[in-house]
Design brief:
binds zinc ion; alpha+beta
Length: 198
Amino acid sequence: MGDFFERIVDVEVSAEEAGPLAERTVDWMVAEGLITRELSGDGVYSLTVDEGYVPGPRWARAVADAPDPDERPGPVAVIVGRDHHVGGQGTDEAEYAVCPRCRTRTVIIDYPEEFEADDEVWQPFKDGIAAWKATGEGSAPCSACGAVVPVTEWQWEPNFAVGALAFDFWGWPPLSAGFRARFGRQLGHRTVEQTGKF
Ligand SMILES: [Zn+2]
């Protein structure tokens, strides 16, 4: 299958809860027939995990349009642990972040004039994310209002998310809105969805 993915990131779960929640979510997907417990690396192009759960007999129940009967998507990879997740073109920096206190948008990559991050603007975010990955706590100051905002509270552009649990559906047709809503309820947390190509 293709080298594209749809990703659902839990942006609220703690690193301590992420492992048990991942297990419960896999159990639920297996019970629904969406995946099996068989692991495969075929069709997984992630840099963080090298295998995922093979689709189950009722995988098509998760997708929006009736799939081609000959089609079979790739595995569902589960990423446990504090990490930053990028979709789209996969640049390692966020294009922008919005301060939850004053609503000011800090532009990091000034498209379409620039295609690279302004290092000076990105550095405090990068440092905050690194600290959060290492310790579970990290923040970056808002240059507009001065608030020191945890990296988990900054409102990142859609292709950038920080979270301790993510699910990558490799090569699946578009997941249905109903399935994505059920998945979010199953996690019990706020989620961010991304798509991307490896
Ligand atoms: Zn602010």
